[in-house]
Amino acid sequence: MFRTRRRKIEQLDFILAGAQKSGTTALHYFLATHPKITMGDQQEMHFFDDDAMFAGPVDYEQLHKHYPQLAPSIIAGDCTPSYIYYEPAAERIWQYNPKIKLIVLLRNPVERAFAHWNMQRFKGREPLDFFDAVREEQTRIAGAPPAEVRRFAYVDRGFYARQLERLFRLFPREQVKVVKFEDFKDKQRETLVSIFSFLGLEPMRSVRSKDRNVVPYERTMNWEERICVYNLFAEDIAKLEQLLGWDCLDWKL
Please, what's the b/e burial string for 156-182 (b: 16 or more CB within 10 A of its CB; e: otherwise)? Predict the structure, then answer.
């Protein structure tokens, strides 16, 4: 009986790079369930957004140590949603593996901002109400350490067009799969088939759906807040439609 020869990981094959509060935890679950994928020993590696890792010669073993030895047919991925937002991450990923595949889930940025704020409230990290937090955002994140910027950038993380433009300057479009959160939620099986196909894999025959990372809502967003925040995003949404050829009517008021 022949034993499958296993190999030490040399490079990740793909990264689920964002966006936060856009279904990445659920997609990580489905990816990790696939028999031909390993996602390592933790959900978010936070390697490419850790400035300390890049202060000198880069030791990629600090990333690879989270992965088992692989059979030849297994591919390896990471799910760290802050990579699309944190500006240095894209070039660091490209320098690591210019042929890597990237998956990006995007949610209505108004809903994403509110969900992000709600998560911070739930964790006891956010003393401000949503409207106040939006008004104070630029002051709070100006000059703050990267981890704190990511924590309170409710609006800034939702400017998707400029984040994708940064990726597309480095990676060919065919290496980047951009998925609408609403499609992932409403047409889950069809969307998963397209994602597995993008990764060069057969879809799983059956997938048990399960809500992941669901945080109870303290309250709903009121109409004044929705209009105010949408107006901040309107121009970027229009740019995103042009960039991806999407129709984002369902994101608009």
Answer: bbbbbbebbebbeeebeeebbbbbbbb
- Point out which residues pair with 16 in neighbouring strands: 79, 103
Amino acid (one-letter) located at 92: R
pTM above 0.90? yes
The CATH architecture that domain 14-251 belongs to is 3-Layer(aba) Sandwich (3.40)
Beta bridge partner(s), residue 78: 15
Whether 138 contacts 234, CB under 8 Å: no
Q: Tens of pLDDT along 79-136?
A: 999 999 999 999 999 999 999 999 999 999 999 999 999 999 999 999 999 999 999 9
pLDDT 10s digits, 209-234: 666 657 889 899 999 999 999 999 99
Ranges of each domain in the chain: 14-251
Tell me which residue of 21, 223, 43, 52 sits closest to 123, measured CA to CA. 21
CB 154 within 8 A of CB 116: yes
Residue 128's region, left for phi above 0, alpha for psi from -120 to 50, else beta, is beta
